[in-house]
Amino acid sequence: MPDPIEVRKVPIHSVADASELAKLIDEGVMDPSRVVAIIGKTEGNGGVNDYTRIIADRAFREVLVAKGAPAEQVRQVPIVWSGGTDGVISPHATIFATIPSEQAEPSEDLRLTVGFAMSEPILPEEIGYTGMIEKVAAAVRVAMDRAGITDPADVHYVQTKTPLLTIQTIRDAKSRGRQVWTEHTHESMDLSNGTTGLGIAVALGEIDMPTEADVMHNRSLFSSVASCSSGVELDQAQVVVMGNARGVGGRYRIGHSVMRDALDADGVWAAIRDAGLDLPDRPHWTDLQGRLVNVFLKCEVSQDGAVRGRRNAMLDDSDVHWHRQIKSCVGGVTASVTGDPAVFVSVSAAHQGPDGGGPVAAIVDLGPGEPTGYPSASAGAHHPG
Predict the structure, then answer these.
(1) 0.90 cut: is pTM over it?
(2) Cα–Cα distance, 225 to 204 (Å, whole number)
(3) Nearest CA to 185 among 195, 171, 196?
């Protein structure tokens, strides 16, 4: 049986700041040697050359080592940064750590569990092809097993980080007589994420094994729980599986749903309900009462260039890439639901949720006493009616 999980969301006060992680450790909330994953948003451009991800990664790992975690162990901790806090999205990190079972709230109900795995190395010429899909799927199955999850229906969120193509890796493939799917490095971000989404969907039985012609073209094939990011930091698929299991104990539970389009606030509420919170028929963010720890979303501009029948110019805009525009839009919609701008909204959701929408996962605190989520009932809040 895996260990129970403690999870907290903390703000990031500057690009290289990890002081709130240090505070959690100093207050005894988390043991640095028990941190198993960190997922966060940094304030860079979200592109291939977004080095804020590397800066944040270094800052958080340095704190773990400085607080006593073995350096070699810390190097293996999956830390997934999504660059770009466009609009109201606020830089933050969600930190997951195991706790001894005797310190956890006992429960025989479904409670949050986390598993981690690394795939075999992914070659540049495999990005966009079935070779990558198969390697991702294999890693997802390993992470599920480590999380103690046997039923794919109990998986609610799979966060990955995978390699994208750079000029250097494209040259490497060519030097070995191999061809890459695209030579546009920014396009390869969408490609890597989409291929990974298909691998997750295959592993969880959401779809059959797709053909290579399906990749980035057949948008009816997707995973409802995939959240895929890519970057220059690694050459493997880094996979974090989150779901629920009985008997692990703890305060937290996770659920999921999908946004059908960029304005689908009901999709966010559905994920929160699926995680176990009782809400009124027409909920308001003050109803959360600090029980929501965080939500995790992927978003994608609709391929038809419209939302609810109304045309938009995102795909035609040569000044501001659609990545930034849709992220800002969905970030605002999500923050209006949660009452908290520190939401994990990541762009490039090909094969992750329906076209023009995306998957949503929510983690809630169901434990007794003072809740550990964002204090939603803050002063000055206005509840209509």
Answers:
(1) yes
(2) 9
(3) 171
pLDDT in tens, 264-311: 999 999 999 999 999 999 999 999 999 999 999 999 999 999 999 999
- pLDDT (tens digit per residue) in 362-372: 999 999 999 99
Provide the pairing of β-strand 92-98 with 5-11: antiparallel
Beta strands in 173-264 (DSSP E): 226-231, 238-246, 252-259
Which of 258, 185, 262, 190 minimizes the C-alpha distance to 224? Answer: 258
Contact 329, 279 (CB under 8 A): no
Distance CA 311, CA 214 (A): 26
pLDDT for the residue numbered 381: 44
- Tell me the pLDDT tens digit for each residue of 47-80: 888 899 999 999 999 999 999 999 999 999 999 9
β-pair type (110-118, 79-83): unpaired
Listed residue (138, 143, 139, 130) closest to 195, CA to CA: 130
Rg (CA), the chain: 20
Cβ–Cβ under 8 Å, residues 267 and 257 = yes
Mean pLDDT score of the chain: 95
Distance CA 75, CA 310 (A): 47
- CB within 8 A of 226, min separation 6: which ones? 158, 160, 196, 197, 200, 201, 298, 351, 352, 353, 359
Residue 114 and residue 240 in contact, taking contact as beta carbons nearer than 8 Å: yes
Give pLDDT, residue 379.
35
Give Cβ neighbours of residue 238 (< 8 Å, ≥ 6 apart).
78, 80, 116, 118, 119, 160, 161, 162
Tokens, residue 359: 């998957």
Structure token digits, residue 353: 């949720």
The catalytic residues are 161, 229
Which amino acid makes up residue 244?
N
From its phi and psi, is residue 32 left (phi > 0), alpha (psi between -120 and 50) or beta? alpha
Distance separating the N- and C-terminal Cα atoms of the chain? 47
